[in-house]
Amino acid sequence: MPCVGLDTSALDSQFKEHAARGIGRYVRELKSYFETYPPPDLRVTFFDHKGVAPLPLAERVLDKFPAGKMTLKSQVLYPIRLGLSRKFGLDVLHFPAHMDAPAWSPKRYIVTVLDMIPFVLEKLYRPERPSWRFALARWLEKCAIRNAALVLVISENTAKDVNRILNISFDRIAVTPLGVDAKFFGVRWGEENLDLRRRYGIPAAAPVILYVGGIDQRKNWAGLLEAFKGARELRQHRNLEAPVLFMAGKIQGDRQFPKLMETVKRLNLEPFVLMPGFIPEEDLLGLYGLSRVLCFLSYYEGFGLTPLEAMAAGLPVVSSNTSCMPEVLQDAAILLGPDETVQASQVLVALLEREELARKYSEKGRKHAKKYSWTKTGELTLDAYRRVLRGFYA
């Protein structure tokens, strides 16, 4: 029986920071699918960086590099270790994150491209890194994607980016959208939670505008803060309770955090922006129910799972209209240009004040989010495995 190996390195909390992020969720759900529904015609097994033969001397040499150690270990040394390891009798490998996939492989492999952010927004990211390091990482990623037997992407928009930027034909690309966990549909939106307010310091009467995610450049946190400030001013002008902004996520260690704090101070928003750091899952679900609206003005997303999960929880969503967002969210969210902060402020206030409008997008969002499931993601991924095992090459 043919065998496909799924790289589960992202589940190791010591391997970068993938385990607690979207990549970790993606790999965890794929692994769960194949364990729950083992296919009858092929075997899916799992491997990671720890399970292959180490090369201590080579790793010590790479550790002396001033930068780019993880990139070189993942994309250059890792395939050598795979090739030397005798216990991996696999026909096809699947690397579920292109930034970690090797630039070459001793076996046929599939790679998942989660997004093309550093290529699409190169001017935004290049100044943050030494030019040689940025160029090396992008070149290795291009090699990893181009050398794959099949490229999986998580949205049609990313498929178009891969085709346009790397000149990879669409018949070598398969779209496997992400899914929404059933737990989000169990949230009772609009349910007050005084204990949650007390524990996180949320004022008792203040409506909550929620943001969930990171704060790297593409997330447009500056636009989020501007839109929030405008919403507060509109509410105050009408002598109504002004909202607070709750930013859920482990953002304090991000290189952008000092800039974010400078902006919060410049806009005089310090008492009204809550940033408690990592939020346990149970509390996060409670926040979805407690909050009035999710604001997500990102410049670019590979899929946009966070706003989709918020919609599943019944939370009205205000999102940017860029990249994959119109494709994934469609008309179940209110879509705006990411820099249209004045309009975003007005929409946020409208959702806070017009119950029928908020209810409309709550219902539309839940209904739309049901179209996405991790089971479907697993089925489409299995189809891709079979396609490569049949000897597909373009």
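Second entry:
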Amino acid sequence: WLDGTRYRRAALAANQLALVVAMVGIVVTPSWAGPPLAALAGLALPMTSAGFSGMVPGLVGPDRLTRANSMDSLSFSAAAMAGPAAAGLLAKLITPTGSVLAIAAAALGSVLALAFIAPVPASPHGRQPVLTGLRHMVRTPRLRAVTLATTLGWGAMGLLIVALTERTEQLGVGEGSAGFVLTAMEIGC
């Protein structure tokens, strides 16, 4: 669906604004609202990670596509490694609240950056209904397997983040230290 729409930048910006609302909401609402807000932010995360990468072919010519895809992959991996440590460092230097608000600021920055990216043409295959894509995923064994494994893996990652935060607090090193553990794990991966 995202590849076929003429409003890709708007869809990605709306997703990032939902992340801003969720992160600010986690800070300013009662603690019981945190899990639903985090779930809201996490629901659209696949659109963000694949959505921005999916724009690369439309932004560069075929002669630069290999390098552009490599740079996109490198930046994604670098962010996955450095991001948790940066969040942990901000939590230790400022407060955990400051760390959460930094995530909101980064998401807002991506909305602003989207305004400066040239519109990416829609896929020549046209806009496909979401159900068409879901049916294709279910009927294609390799795609189904990868999607299932990725979904389970990211679900487990969400649980790990919560558990690490609790465990580092129990160990007396503070919940912000969980970010450093996650960075070490990402480097190992």
